[in-house]
C-alpha cells in the first residue's frame, strides 16, 4: 500500500470527492479515506440522488393517475409497481457511485477503505495502517439530528434513509419537521397514496426561506392533501406492533394553558410510519480531533478560516461539517476552491450566490437575501413579482402555480435576492445565481433576450416589474 501522499481527504461525499479530483488535476498525489462501501457520501447514496429519483418517479405516477387527462391523454388502469420504482432509484444510485469510482481511477486517486482517524498533523490512520501526508482535508459531512423521546429504528420510526426504502406505501405517515426533507419525502409518499401529516415546531413550513414562499407552499401542499400541524412539537413516541402513537404539544402554549400548568393542546396522533427530519448535525465522531487540537464551534462544526484551514495548520475542512448551508453544491464548490488554495492559487466563494432548491411540485428555489433579511438589515429594496398564471408556457404545461419574485437594491437596481415557486424553479434560479455572481441589476436581466415561449420569461417579467413595467400583467 502507498503510504505517503500530498493530500489525504477524509470522506468521499460531494465535498471530498470533488476536492480530490481537483487536487489531482493540479498535480497532487491524493488519497481518499471512505468508510462506506460506496463512494459519493450522503448525497449519492442516501440523499440528493435517491430522493430525486423517487420524487421524479412518484410525480410521473401522479401525472398518469390524475393529470394527463388535462392534456387529452386518457390512460386506463394506472397502478403502482413500487419494487420497480425502487429498482430504478437503486440503479440511478449505483450508476452514480460507480461513476465516482471510475473518476478516481482516471485521476489516479487512491481509495483507502475504512474509517479514518487523524493521528498527527501529517498522519491519518485507517484501521491498522498509517499514512503520511502533507495536508489533510476533513469532508466527513453530516448525520441525522436525533429527537429525544422518538427513537429511530429505521422500520416504523425512520430517518430520511429509512424513508427511501419503505417496501410498501404507509397508510399514515407522520413527518416530524416541515423543512426540506419533510416536504420532499412527504410529497413522495403522499403521491403514492399515503395520508401525510407534517408536524412542524415553528409557525411555518420551510422556515429559513422567504416568508412569502412559506405562505404559498402551505396553501399549495394543503391543496394537494398534505396535513400541516404548525406550531406543534412531538414530545414522545410509543411503538406498539405496527402502530406508533405520538404525543403532541403546542410549541408555544397559550398563557391560559400555562396558568393551568399544561403545555396546551395536548393530543395524540397515530401513524404506521414516522419520519424524523428535524435537521442534520456535523459528523466528526471518532476523527480524533481533540488529540490534534482541531477546534469545533458551539454547534459542533469544525472552525475554519477564510481559506478552509482549521485551527491546526495543514488540516482543512469543507462541506456539511463546517458552517453554512448543508447543500451538495456548496460542498462541491468549497472542495474545488480549497484544493486550489492548497495548490497556491487564490479562490473564493460568494455565499450570497448559492441557490437553494426544494424539489416538491411545484419546486421552490431561492438565491440571495430574503425580504425578512433585507428588512432587518435596513436595506432599501424594490420588489418585482410575476405570476406563472400569466406565462404562456406555464399555461401550456398546465403548471401555473407560483411566481417569480426579484428583490433589487432600491438605489442601484442590483439584484439582491430571488425567490421562485413554480414548475422547474430549480432550473430557473440558475440565471439569478449567475446574475448575483456578476453583480447584475434587474435592468440587466430585463434587457436580456429570453426565448419565447419559456418559463424563463417569468424571470424577465419579474425583473421588468422591479421598475413597474412588466408587459404581460
Ligand atoms: P457527505 O455527503 O455526508 O459525505 C461524507 C462522507 O464521509 C460519507 O461518505 C461518510 O461515510 C464519510 N465519512 C465520515 N466520517 C468518516 C471517517 N472518519 N472516515 C472515513 N469516511 C468517513 N443537497 C443538495 O444540494 N440537493 C439535494 O437535493 C439534497 N437532497 C438531500 C436529500 C436527503 C434525504 C439528504 C439527507 C440530504 C440531501 N442534501 C441535498 C444534502 C447533501 O446530501 C449534503 O449537503 C452533502 O452530501 C454534503 O456533502 P459532504 O461531502 O460535506 O458530506
Ligand atoms: P431542515 O432544517 O430543512 O428542516 C427541519 C425542520 O424541522 C425545521 O422546519 C424545524 O423548524 C423543524 N423542527 C426542528 N425541531 C423540531 C421538533 N422537535 N419538532 C417539529 N419540528 C422541528 O432539515 P431537514 O429537512 O432535516 O434537512 C436537513 C438538511 O439536508 C437541510 O438543511 C438541507 O440543507 C439538506 N437537504 C437539502 C435538500 C435540497 O437541497 N433539496 C433536500 C433534503 C435535505
What is this structure's SSE topology?
Layout: E1 4-10, H1 14-25, E2 30-34, H2 41-46, H3 48-67, H4 82-106, E3 110-113, E4 116-120, E5 123-126, E6 129-138, E7 142-144, E8 157-158, H5 160-163, E9 172-176, H6 180-191, E10 195-199, H7 211-224, E11 227-229, E12 232-240, E13 243-250, H8 255-259, E14 267-271, E15 273-276, E16 280-282, H9 289-292, E17 315-317, H10 328-342, E18 356-358, E19 363-368, H11 371-376, E20 381-387, H12 392-397, E21 403-409, E22 415-422, H13 425-437, H14 442-447, H15 457-466
Parallel strand pairs: 1-2, 1-6, 2-3, 6-17, 8-15, 9-10, 9-15, 10-11
Antiparallel strand pairs: 4-5, 5-6, 7-16, 12-13, 13-14, 18-19, 19-22, 20-21, 21-22
Bound molecules: flavin-adenine dinucleotide and 1,4-dihydronicotinamide adenine dinucleotide.
Rounded to an integer, what's the Rg over CA atoms?
24 Å
CATH architectural name of the largest domain:
3-Layer(bba) Sandwich
Termini Cα gap? 67 Å
**By CATH's scheme, which homologous superfamily of the largest domain applies?**
FAD/NAD(P)-binding domain
Which geometry do the CA atoms define? globular
* Small molecules (ligands, ions, cofactors) in the structure: flavin-adenine dinucleotide, 1,4-dihydronicotinamide adenine dinucleotide
**Which percent range fits the helix content?**
25-40%
CATH class of the largest domain, anyone? Alpha Beta
Major beta-sheet overview: 7 strands, mixed
Query: CATH topology of the largest domain, which one?
Result: FAD/NAD(P)-binding domain
Query: Unreliable runs, pLDDT <50, ≥5 residues?
Result: none
DSSP helical segment count: 15
- Beta-strand residue percentage: 15-25%
Average residue-wise pLDDT: 96
By secondary-structure content and strand pairing, the structural class works out as: alpha/beta
Structural domain count? 3
Amino acid at each position: 500500500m502507498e503510504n505517503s501522499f500530498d493530500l489525504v481527504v477524509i470522506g468521499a461525499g460531494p465535498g471530498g470527492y470533488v476536492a480530490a479530483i481537483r487536487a489531482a488535476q493540479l498535480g497532487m498525489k491524493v488519497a481518499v479515506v471512505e468508510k462506506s462501501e460506496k463512494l459519493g457520501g450522503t448525497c449519492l447514496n442516501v440523499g440528493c440522488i435517491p430522493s430525486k429519483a423517487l420524487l421524479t418517479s412518484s410525480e410521473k405516477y401522479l401525472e398518469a393517475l390524475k393529470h394527463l387527462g388535462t392534456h387529452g391523454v386518457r390512460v386506463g388502469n394506472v397502478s403502482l409497481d413500487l419494487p420497480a420504482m425502487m429498482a430504478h432509484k437503486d440503479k440511478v444510485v449505483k450508476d452514480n457511485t460507480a461513476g465516482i469510482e471510475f473518476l478516481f481511477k482516471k485521476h489516479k486517486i487512491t481509495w483507502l477503505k475504512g474509517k479514518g482517524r487523524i493521528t498527527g498533523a501529517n498522519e491519518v490512520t485507517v484501521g491498522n495502517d498509517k499514512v503520511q501526508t502533507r495536508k489533510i482535508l476533513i469532508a466527513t459531512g453530516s448525520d441525522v439530528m436525533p429527537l429525544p423521546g422518538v427513537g429511530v429504528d429505521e422500520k416504523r420510526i425512520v430517518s430520511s434513509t429509512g424513508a427511501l426504502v419503505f417496501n410498501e406505501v404507509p397508510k399514515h405517515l407522520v413527518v416530524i419537521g416541515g423543512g426540506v426533507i419533510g416536504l420532499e419525502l412527504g410529497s413522495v409518499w403522499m403521491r403514492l397514496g399515503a395520508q401525510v401529516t407534517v408536524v412542524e415546531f415553528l409557525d411555518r413550513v420551510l422556515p429559513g426561506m422567504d416568508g412569502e414562499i412559506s405562505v404559498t407552499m402551505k396553501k399549495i401542499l394543503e391543496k394537494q392533501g398534505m396535513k400541516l400541524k404548525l406550531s406543534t412539537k412531538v414530545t414522545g413516541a410509543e411503538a406498539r406492533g405496527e402502530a406508533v402513537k405520538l404525543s403532541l404539544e403546542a410549541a408555544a402554549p397559550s398563557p391560559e394553558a400555562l396558568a393551568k400548568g399544561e403545555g396546551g393542546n395536548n393530543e395524540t396522533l397515530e401513524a404506521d410510519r414516522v419520519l424524523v427530519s428535524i435537521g442534520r448535525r456535523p459528523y466528526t465522531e471518532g476523527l480524533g480531533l481533540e488529540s490534534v487540537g482541531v477546534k469545533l464551534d458551539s454547534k459542533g462544526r469544525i472552525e475554519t478560516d477564510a481559506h478552509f484551514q482549521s485551527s491546526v495548520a495543514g488540516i482543512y475542512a469543507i462541506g456539511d461539517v463546517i458552517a453554512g448551508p448543508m447543500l451538495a453544491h456548496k460542498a462541491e464548490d468549497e472542495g474545488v476552491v480549497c484544493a486550489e488554495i492548497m495548490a497556491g492559487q487564490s479562490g473564493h466563494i460568494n455565499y450570497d450566490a448559492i441557490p437553494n432548491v426544494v424539489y416538491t411540485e411545484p419546486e421552490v428555489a431561492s438565491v440571495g437575501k430574503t425580504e425578512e433579511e433585507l428588512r432587518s438589515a435596513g436595506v432599501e429594496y424594490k420588489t418585482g413579482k410575476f405570476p406563472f398564471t400569466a406565462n404562456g408556457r406555464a399555461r401550456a404545461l398546465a403548471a401555473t402555480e407560483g411566481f417569480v419574485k426579484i428583490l433589487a437594491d432600491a438605489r442601484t437596481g442590483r439584484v439582491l435576492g430571488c425567490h421562485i415557486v413554480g414548475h422547474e424553479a430549480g432550473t430557473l434560479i440558475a440565471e439569478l445565481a449567475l446574475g448575483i455572481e456578476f453583480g447584475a441589476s434587474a435592468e440587466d436581466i430585463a434587457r436580456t433576450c429570453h426565448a419565447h415561449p419559456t418559463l424563463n420569461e417569468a424571470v424577465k417579467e419579474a425583473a421588468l416589474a422591479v421598475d413597474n413595467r412588466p408587459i404581460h400583467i
